[in-house]
Design goal:
This protein is α/β, with parallel strands linked by helices. The protein is built from eleven helices and 14 strands. The strands form four sheets. Strands 2-3-4-5-7-10-13-14 form an eight-stranded parallel barrel, surrounded by four helices. The protein starts with a strand and ends with a helix.
């Protein structure tokens, strides 16, 4: 069998920004129209929570980098048997092998939780099944939420909860072998909205001139502080050399006023983009990361409130809810 290397484009030291494409809405556009919007707006990366054939078909022939998710309910099955992993690769991955799949995420926020212990073996099985068919260079990883951290402030004190330390140690060893980054969900909005009297809005929006000091490091962005708390936690379980990618970050436009607004959402993604283009975080200033904004559309089948209002585009007319993607606005 011919050797197949999925990474056909070089990993350049520059910010790569993508958008999550969820499916929890009853008024979402056709997949072909959505992928057309990604292309029109110059969105270079897409994160899918599960392999949906219509979306994968629409992605064929594009140069959009794909993060392909495996649903949480599949994790235990994939961990239980290498044959299950081989079947997943044959039936799900092989038909779309020509896409630029840069990441496969084994579960979304399974850690922490009752299924967490299955994640490392599921990752190993998927990796083995891909290697057996000579699909190389794919980042096999998982997505971890902020509640996996027992301590997040100050960032240097970042540490995983006792119940996930063992699992995260296993995952770190696997990621080091691939090598691949850990994907993390980072939401300054939720931290700010839960404690607005303690967290300045401009710090949450990555736009402050008054830093938070942690030893020798200065933080002008809550996003940076949250990422670095994950990095500090990784260091404590032997993952000092493990990279991170941000699988979700965003700010809702409505649902919890006055903290949510179109202006705040636009300011957050704009300031974050400008900030990230300047480099990494204080703890890793020379290490840029891939970031997926959350999310493409408002999704009306999610719980009411802020969860329905993270979208960057209106699903009914494909128009931006606020200006951000310049190439989209100019056409």
């Amino acid at each position: 069998m011919a050797l197949i290397v999925i990474h056909q484009l070089p990993h350049i030291k520059a910010l790569r920004l993508g958008v999550n494409y969820g499916q929890n809405g009853d008024n979402l556009p056709a997949a072909s129209d959505v992928i057309g919007l990604y292309k029109k707006c110059g969105i270079k990366m897409i994160r899918l929570f599960e392999p949906i054939p219509e979306i994968l078909e629409a992605l064929k022939g594009t140069y959009i980098r794909v993060s392909l998710g495996i649903r949480n309910e599949k994790v235990q099955t994939l961990a239980s048997s290498i044959e299950e992993a081989r079947s997943w690769v044959s039936t799900t991955f092989v038909p779309v092998k020509d896409l630029l799949v840069f990441w496969i995420t084994v579960g979304n926020e399974v850690i922490p939780g009752p299924e967490a212990s299955y994640v490392p073996q599921a990752m190993r099985n998927i990796n083995q099944a891909l290697n057996e068919q000579s699909f190389l260079g794919i980042n096999i990883t998982t997505v971890v939420a902020g509640n996996a951290l027992q301590t997040s402030y100050p960032p240097s004190a970042g540490a995983f909860t006792d119940d996930v330390n063992g699992v995260m140690s296993e995952i770190v060893k696997f990621l080091a072998q691939i090598p691949a980054p850990l994907m993390i969900n980072v939401y300054p909005y939720f931290a700010y909205a839960s404690s607005p009297s303690d967290i300045p809005l401009q710090y949450a929006l990555s736009n402050t001139t008054d830093p938070v000091v942690d030893g020798d490091l200065k933080y002008y962005s809550l996003f940076d502080a949250m990422v670095d708390s994950f990095i500090a936690a990784l260091e404590k379980v032997g993952g000092g050399n493990i990279g991170v990618a941000v699988s979700e970050t965003g700010w809702p436009t409505a649902g919890n006023e006055p903290y949510t607004s179109v202006a705040n959402a636009q300011a957050y993604v704009t300031n974050l983009n400008n900030h990230l283009l300047q480099g990494g975080t204080p703890r890793r200033p020379d290490s840029n990361m891939d970031v997926f904004l959350f999310e493409m559309f408002n999704e009306d089948e999610k719980p009411s409130g802020v969860e329905q209002n993270f979208g960057m585009f209106n699903p009914t007319n494909l128009q931006p809810i606020y200006p951000f993607w310049q190439s989209c606005l100019s056409k």
